[in-house]
Amino acid sequence: MISLRNLFKPAADPREARRPLWNAVVAAARAPHWYVEGGVPDTLDGRFDMISLVLALVLHRIDEDPGQALAGVQLTELFVTDMDGQMRQIGFGDMVVGKQIGRMVGALGGRLGAYRVPDGSDAMRAALVRNLWRGQEPDAAHLAHVADEAAKLRAALAAMPVEALIVADRLPDAA
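^ thats the sequence. predicted structure below, dont judge the formating
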């Protein structure tokens, strides 16, 4: 016999299968070294910029396996959902949230393209300066740290099978 509770129970959200990976992206982006040794501003914008960098690197890796495209879409949808919730939590109203989310998704899209360039290239350094420090040239040691750590993370992700990455609850250690 079907109970009324089961009849009106919402279906499981398939995006939740990517929640551990999303949490791992956020944790990696919040690692203190980005903000201390890397000099990325520890602000709302700086945190968004770091999440966007790490997420872009993860999405690039997922894109290498066309059979896992849905996982990339689900991960991006979790990004949107989380950003929406964060903005509402800090007090943005309904009229503003939609526009801000649109800007954030646009910013992520731009970063996805900007970070496809080779590690260590002038184009990568320029993208990091533009996106993490809003065009203000950082201290050379800060830029070197972020560029090196991003390259190490990309290499560690490349060494990980995409099937393992999409179910991971932590990102590989950048070595």
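The radius of gyration is 18 Å.
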